[in-house]
Amino acid sequence: MNYQTLSNNVKMPMLGFGVFQASPSETEKAVGMALATGYRLIDTAVAYQNEAAVGNAIKNSNVSRDQLFVTTKVWLQDYGYQQTQQSVFRSLELLKTDYLDLVLLHQPIGDVWGAWRALEDLYRDGTVRAIGVSNFPPELVEQFLQINEIKPMVNQIEINPFYQQTKNVSYLQSNDVVAEAWAPFAEGKNGIFHNPQLQEIANVHQTKVGNVILRWLNQRNIVTIPKSIHQNRIESNFAIFDFELSPTEMEMISSLNTDVSMFNQADRPDVARTKNLINWHVNH
């Protein structure tokens, strides 16, 4: 396993396992298979409504807690100092652990400043080992870097071959913020698993298109959290450390970039509401 070292020297696995859109029963089974395969980073969220299932899978595994990197995210209705602290304590209970490795603010809407103050205090007292954000655009990340005493250590954003976010990733990495990719496979959009360039590269390395994508992200120093509920895919997605993409192959994948999100812009608050959010905080 390769690791990213966060700005506070905490080590984070480069390849993790996500549980977005998985039911509790699917989640518990899938996380159990992922842990048995070798995954050690598990990513969940309050909004996914499957934290308890993740906790059950961890409890029933043979993996000790200190070998795991458990991430959850605070949802919008829990923003604000007291609400955010209460949300994290609920997550601790559901996940059956007395600390979390990483807690993120899930979206840049609402009282993000009060929520961040809560995460800072939870970080200081050791309840949380690292704190960060999710779906935050560069403008708001910049404010967090300039204003807050403790800077975000991670920003989890959409990154895939069709939406590579090259400038955003470069900005984050130059400011010692780890970029973490959600939807690395674009949820299958644009025929990604049958893309000719990706398939050509996969054939060269005798692997699958999904492995090529995950390896491409790994070589860009981007953490990623692919999700599956099928054992063969869970195991396949983990097999990315026995080959390396050449500079030419990396450039081939770069050429697929469209700079357009694979998801409905209206459903992305970081795009639709960021300016209003920034203006609100400037005036309050």
From TrEMBL:
Signal peptide: none
Sequence ranges assigned to domain NADP-dependent oxidoreductase in this UniProt record: 21-257
Assigned keywords, A-Z: NADP, Oxidoreductase
UniProt xrefs under InterPro entries: AKR (IPR020471), Aldo/ket_reductase_CS (IPR018170), NAD(P)_OxRdtase_dom_sf (IPR036812), NADP_OxRdtase_dom (IPR023210)
Pfam families per record: Aldo_ket_red
UniProt similarity note: Belongs to the aldo/keto reductase family.
Protein name: Aldo/keto reductase
Lineage of the organism: Bacteria, Bacillati, Bacillota, Bacilli, Lactobacillales
